[in-house]
Specification:
The protein has 242 residues and is α+β, with helices and mostly antiparallel strands. It has helices at 5-13, 18-39, 47-58, 63-74, 106-119, 150-160, 181-190, 212-227, and strands at 83-90, 96-103, 123-124, 134-143, 164-167, 171-176, 197-204, 208-210, 231-236, 238-240. The protein folds into 3 domains: 11-74, Orthogonal Bundle (Arc Repressor Mutant, subunit A), CATH 1.10.10; 83-132 and 205-240, YebC, transcriptional regulation domain (Alpha-Beta Plaits), CATH 3.30.70; 134-204, Alpha-Beta Plaits, CATH 3.30.70.980. Strand 5 (164-167) and strand 6 (171-176) form a beta hairpin. Helix 2 runs antiparallel to helix 3 (47-58) and helix 2 runs parallel beside helix 4.
Length: 242
């Protein structure tokens, strides 16, 4: 598996415990609050908020909770003051890791993230040390089905404005420019094509192959980072045999 789309696929397939679900709700609520605070409470005019609300609905967050988060972000008083930070570092064997953070205490979060790296064979790096190894892309995942032909999906995706499509073992990965993600997504949905995932992500330009102990350390590091309350997303350029 590789450190971008495959990791997201594994996370989707994991059974969610109550604790994991609670953490997901907290992270999505943070994203809604920040999106509403920066771009307003109308999702039709705020693409970031629209995407955050869609992710929350897919996670079965109640509409009342979503609306409270929107109102909290749009309100002038009482809202949490979250800071957006990108942390960069290295995992085992020099794997590049990028982490998107939303925190109300930069110093606390930095110390905790640094500790997670050091415990799992990595180290936190300087700003810009690995970001040049990634490209921002829109990613749409479509699960393979007997009724869906690869050539038909490819033509539908390209006609909708996608840049490329790759075939994985149990899914198709469609890549777009970040600004084209929504239009390609809506086009595919309009044709009755079910989507397993659609998000803007950071795609590595090259990957680092890991085996044995280093592979195990990398998985533990990814799990630990994902589990941190202030971490919104983690991207890495590792490749591990399935």
């Amino acid at each position: 598996m590789s450190g971008h789309s495959k990791w997201a696929t594994i996370k989707r397939k994991k059974a969610k415990t109550d604790n994991q679900r609670g953490k997901l709700f907290t992270k999505l609520a943070k994203e809604i609050i920040v999106a509403a605070k920066q771009g307003g409470a109308d999702p039709d005019g705020n693409m970031r908020l629209k995407a955050a609300i869609q992710r929350a609905k897919e996670a079965n967050i109640p509409n009342d909770n979503i609306q409270r988060a929107v109102q909290k972000g749009a309100g002038s008083a009482g809202g949490d003051n979250y800071e957006e930070i990108i942390y960069e570092g290295y995992g085992p064997s020099g794997v590049a890791v990028m982490i998107e953070i939303l925190t109300d205490n930069r110093n606390r979060t930095a110390g905790e993230v640094r500790h997670l790296f050091s415990r799992n064979g990595g180290n936190l790096g300087e700003s810009g040390c690995v970001s040049w190894m990634f490209d921002k892309k829109g990613l749409i995942v479509v699960e393979k089905k007997d009724t869906l032909q690869e050539d038909d999906l490819l033509m539908a995706a390209l006609d909708a404005g996608a840049e490329d499509m790759k075939t994985e073992e149990d899914s198709y990965e469609i890549y777009t420019a970040p600004q084209d993600l929504d239009s390609v997504k809506e086009s595919l949905l309009g044709q009755g094509i079910a989507l397993a995932d659609a998000e803007v992500t950071m795609m590595p330009q090259t990957t680092v192959s890991l085996t044995g102990k280093e592979a195990e350390q990398m998985i533990r590091l990814m799990d630990a980072l994902e589990d941190h309350d202030d971490v919104q997303d983690v991207y890495a350029n590792f490749d591990i045999d399935d």
